[in-house]
Design the sequence.
């Protein structure tokens, strides 16, 4: 297989797996657990997709499996090959795919007038609860690093940047869900015109760049760039 053919066949999930194994050798089970701890929040894929990808990358010579015995059990631990590292380096030199969010609750919010108040409140309560649960988990990850017992402790200078992103994002989501719930609860006391006027006041107070209010909305060029084609598993 030529280098061009190899690069064409690799997906972002391929690179996510390679990146994990480049940091530390893992078994497929451990890789799946790392997916739950980290990558699932920025690249959600089914656990079965991870297992398939490991096999595929191994067949391409990008990962190398080695049998190990833990007690009476045998397992295969995968490490990255020189060919795999080369593929990662080439990927890091390419433009990143545009920022995107997979947030079903927002789609439900857009069509909330077709449902009931109780339905949208239930959705937002779940969003708030999920954010709080993930914040607790993030706090546990944070504590692992502070106590020096994280598997990737030697890369805390990089991991701290990701922890900062996740905790900041989750706090924002929780705060948004909380104030949105409070806003919806107040609607019973407002007329349709009153709700719309209050909404406009909210929009007026949102911070944006000064030049953005002087032009007609144009979709960001980044959002028009194609994403690396990949079907979700």
Sequence:
């Amino acid at each position: 297989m030529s280098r061009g053919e190899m690069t064409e066949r690799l997906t972002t999930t391929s690179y996510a797996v390679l990146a994990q194994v480049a940091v530390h050798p893992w078994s497929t089970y451990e890789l799946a657990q790392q997916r739950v701890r980290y990558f699932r929040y920025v690249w959600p894929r089914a656990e079965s997709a991870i297992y398939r990808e490991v096999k595929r990358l191994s067949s391409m010579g990008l990962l190398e499996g080695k049998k190990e015995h833990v007690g009476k059990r045998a397992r295969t631990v995968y490490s990255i090959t020189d060919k795999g590292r080369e593929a990662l380096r080439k990927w890091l030199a390419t433009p990143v795919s545009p920022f995107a969010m997979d947030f079903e609750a927002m789609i439900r919010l857009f069509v909330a007038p077709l449902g009931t108040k109780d339905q949208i409140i239930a959705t937002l309560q779940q969003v708030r609860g999920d954010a709080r649960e993930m914040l607790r988990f993030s706090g546990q990850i944070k504590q692992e690093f502070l106590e020096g017992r994280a598997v990737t402790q030697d890369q805390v200078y990089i991991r701290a940047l990701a922890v900062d992103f996740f905790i900041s994002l989750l706090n924002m989501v929780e705060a948004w869900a909380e104030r949105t719930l409070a806003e919806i609860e107040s609607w019973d006391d407002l007329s349709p015109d009153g709700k719309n006027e209050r909404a406009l006041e909210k929009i007026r107070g949102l911070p944006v760049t000064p030049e953005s209010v002087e032009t007609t909305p144009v979709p960001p060029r980044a959002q028009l760039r194609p994403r690396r084609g990949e079907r979700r598993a």
Q: What stands out?
A: The beta strands are 26-27, 63-70, 73-80. The chain has two domains: 3-82, 104-224.
